[in-house]
DNA sequence: CTAGGGTTAG
């Protein structure tokens, strides 16, 4: 028998399933020597490679290893798992199963089709590895949301003789970005990159910019960006989303205008990021102009863009326009339903958000399966409307959808209890959940302890935060507040002393100012949520995009060292 | 002689 165990596993799996029996027979047919000729494969689209392959099969020609590589590549691009695995069977039959090029293509093909287990099997079955095969599996894991595994394989690679190249670093850096807890990796990997001389590779820079921006290290982001000589559209998009992500919408808009002026092609990625920035700045006028641009470029059915439009309109206080955009969407999917619920929750209409959710899960005809993000939105909606019991119910409901609560949903649960004043139950969740509480969670909890004057729990939360955020004065100040309110003046004195001893400065929130028409407007950088649009952005809203770029020289934004 | 891996968006 020519088949290895591996292909037999596949084959039997197919024959057991009546719907896949035809595929099974096809595999058998291929393995008996059917083949293909690829006509003019080099100037055709992946889909026409696939067609050529299937046609060529009928001509009984045995494909060369080069042709097999090309066709596997096309299967990867078109996510054609069926054909890809059939070709795999043929490869085993012909005996190319230890060819490095073919195996790397196989790993890539399976990974791109989401069959990461099969990709791992191929990878583990390889006798020798090189840079490409390592990178294929690392990027495959990263793209399939298994950042942790990608990083651990990277570490394994470092212990071999094979030195990672710039392709590998791009994948590893983006895995780190997706894994929240490993923000410390940024500098380390950056150092690797410099040492190996990849610091001017545009892919590496884009992924590093993304990584630093997600960790809030904007100084590094700007440094990298400014060192770039050629700024292509992806780099600019990474930069725009970095600015948006770090509440620097102003900078994001400026860059977008510059990009538009210099005729750098505006992609759907750029539009999504810039809509985010408009939402964060609550500049409705600019948001509307981007909406016009979306319509003009025909991107008005792209899920990411629609989601961003809904978000932008709701942040700008225009919930009706948000729901109008949603209504005009032809294919409403999970992401968009969730965006719409989130829009209602953000606009203080939590009950409307819950109404949508209840409707969706009731209606059997609508294709909707709630995921983690969706439950976060539902729980947030409960929180904003003060619905403790309902929130706890929804939390319990997650399990009926086979969803194990993640840290975000636990954070919502803690918030629900704490805001209602049930601090003991909230505290219990910290112990019961399978995660370590992070700074955001403890900060929320601490604020609630202050609200309800609970010294004991407040003290515990503050001490946790001293460890988690050693530079932040906020927990010191809140704890001092709690103790002051309880008349514990000795402890207040001690807290002040601790602050001095630990070198924590009282003022860390930066201040910025914007100058428009000779008037100076001042606002805090850290948190813009309390800034009312009519206070500061009134003047900005009057400006059109074109005018903004003309005026940009006047907007000297400075962050003072307080 | 020909072949394989990478970045940005909820």
UniProtKB/TrEMBL annotation:
PPR repeats lie at residues 130-164, 232-266, 371-405, 406-440. InterPro entries: E_motif, PPR_At4g14850-like_plant, PPR_rpt, TPR-like_helical_dom_sf. One of its GO terms (molecular function) is RNA binding. Gene3D superfamilies: Tetratricopeptide repeat domain. Keywords: Repeat. One of its GO terms (biological process) is RNA modification. PANTHER family: PENTATRICOPEPTIDE REPEAT-CONTAINING PROTEIN. This is Pentacotripeptide-repeat region of PRORP domain-containing protein. It comes from Lactuca virosa.
């Amino acid at each position: 028998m020519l088949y290895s165990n591996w292909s037999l596993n596949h084959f039997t799996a197919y024959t057991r399933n009546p719907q896949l029996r035809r595929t099974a027979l096809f595999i058998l047919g291929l393995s008996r020597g059917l083949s293909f000729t690829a006509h003019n494969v080099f100037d055709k689209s992946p889909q026409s490679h696939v067609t050529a392959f299937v046609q060529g099969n009928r001509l009984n020609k045995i494909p060369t290893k080069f042709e097999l590589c090309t066709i596997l590549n096309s299967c990867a691009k078109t996510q054609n798992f069926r054909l890809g695995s059939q070709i795999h069977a043929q490869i085993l039959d012909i005996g190319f199963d230890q060819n490095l090029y073919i195996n790397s293509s196989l790993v890539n093909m399976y990974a791109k089709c989401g069959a990461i287990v099969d990709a791992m099997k191929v990878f583990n079955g390889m006798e020798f590895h090189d840079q490409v095969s390592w990178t294929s599996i690392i990027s495959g894991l990263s793209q399939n949301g298994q950042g942790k595994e990608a990083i651990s394989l990277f570490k394994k690679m470092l212990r071999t003789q094979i030195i990672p190249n710039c392709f590998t670093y791009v994948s590893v850096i983006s895995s780190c970005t997706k894994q929240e807890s490993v923000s410390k990796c940024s500098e380390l990997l950056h150092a690797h990159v410099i040492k190996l001389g990849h610091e001017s590779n545009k892919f590496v820079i884009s992924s590093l910019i993304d990584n630093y921006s997600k960790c809030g290290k904007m100084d590094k982001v700007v440094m990298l960006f400014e060192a770039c000589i050629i700024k292509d559209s992806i780099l600019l998009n990474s930069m725009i989303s970095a600015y948006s992500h770090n509440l620097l919408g102003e900078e994001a808009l400026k860059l977008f205008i510059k990009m538009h002026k210099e005729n750098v092609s505006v992609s759907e990625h750029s539009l999504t990021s810039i809509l985010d920035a408009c939402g964060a700045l609550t500049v409705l006028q600019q948001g509307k102009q981007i909406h016009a641009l979306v319509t003009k470029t025909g991107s008005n059915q792209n899920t990411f863009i629609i989601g961003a439009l809904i978000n932008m309109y709701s942040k700008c206080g225009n919930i009706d326009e948000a729901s109008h955009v949603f209504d005009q969407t032809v294919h409403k999917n999970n992401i968009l339903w969730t965006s719409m619920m989130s829009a209602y929750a953000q606009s203080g209409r939590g009950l409307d958000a819950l109404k949508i959710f209840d409707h969706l899960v009731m209606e059997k005809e609508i294709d909707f399966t709630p995921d983690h993000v969706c439950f976060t939105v539902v729980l947030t909606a409960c929180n904003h409307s003060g619905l403790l019991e309902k929130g706890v119910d929804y939390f319990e409901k997650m399990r009926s959808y086979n969803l194990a609560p993640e840290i975000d949903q636990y954070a919502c649960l803690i918030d629900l209890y704490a805001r209602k004043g049930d601090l003991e139950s909230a505290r219990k969740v910290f112990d019961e959940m399978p995660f370590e509480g992070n700074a955001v969670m403890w900060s929320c909890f601490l604020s609630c302890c202050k609200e309800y004057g609970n010294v004991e729990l407040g003290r515990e939360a503050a001490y946790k935060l001293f460890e988690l955020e050693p530079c932040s004065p906020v927990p010191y100040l809140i704890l001092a507040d709690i103790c002051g309110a309880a008349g514990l003046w000795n402890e207040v004195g001690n807290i002040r002393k601790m602050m001095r001893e630990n070198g924590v400065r009282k003022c860390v929130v930066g201040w910025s100012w914007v100058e428009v028409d000779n008037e100076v407007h001042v606002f805090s950088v850290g948190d813009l949520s309390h800034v009312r649009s009519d206070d500061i952005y009134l003047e900005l809203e009057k400006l059109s995009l074109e005018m903004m770029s003309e005026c940009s020289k006047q907007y000297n934004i400075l962050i003072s060292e307080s």
